[in-house]
Amino acid sequence: MRLLAGICAAGNSSRMGFDKLSTPPSLHAPDTLLRRAITAAKGHDILVALPPDTHPYFASRRAILRPSDAFICVEQADEGLSATLKSLAQAAISGGYDGFITMLADLPFVTAAHLETLVVLFETFEGTQIVRAMSQSGRDGHPVIFPASVLPEFETLTGDHGAQDLIAKYGAKRVEMPSEAATWDMDTVEDWRQM
């Protein structure tokens, strides 16, 4: 099955006060959050959603991408995650993909192994079910894989709520990960310090 890994990296990092996606978290972890997300998606077609090229973080995020990493600019990124998801879902539809993997760039501990576990289940259901990562403590997280049949409904998404309404409508097969990686996101300076 052909899957598009859409990496959501168009946000403002507004709670951080700096660009969390392109700044290495420490001298001991010189890779960036965006690079980690791209690495986790290896083996799949990747499309990175960046802010508009006039955004102050565009250049630093674009510089992290390899020449082979495709990207789009989300002109309405300030409208919330839904604008990013709409743009990525439209690209998956246009590309004729069997499914769309939503990946949040601020989940630093999601790995390629986590993603492949989800892909195996998605393929087991022949690409007909939403498949979602869940932390070992039972909380819903990311990545999430959506079948092609659901993608046109991404146009109905609004705000920063993501695709929660679609998951509620169609249900999801959940895969428990052996850690909190699916839900450990970097949203605050305190999260950054814990990294």
From TrEMBL:
GO terms for molecular function: nucleotidyltransferase activity. CDD domains: GT_2_like_f. Residues 7-170 form the MobA-like NTP transferase domain. Gene3D superfamilies: Spore Coat Polysaccharide Biosynthesis Protein SpsA, Chain A. It holds the Pfam family NTP_transf_3. Keywords: Magnesium. The keyword Transcription does not apply. This is MobA-like NTP transferase domain-containing protein. It comes from Celeribacter baekdonensis.
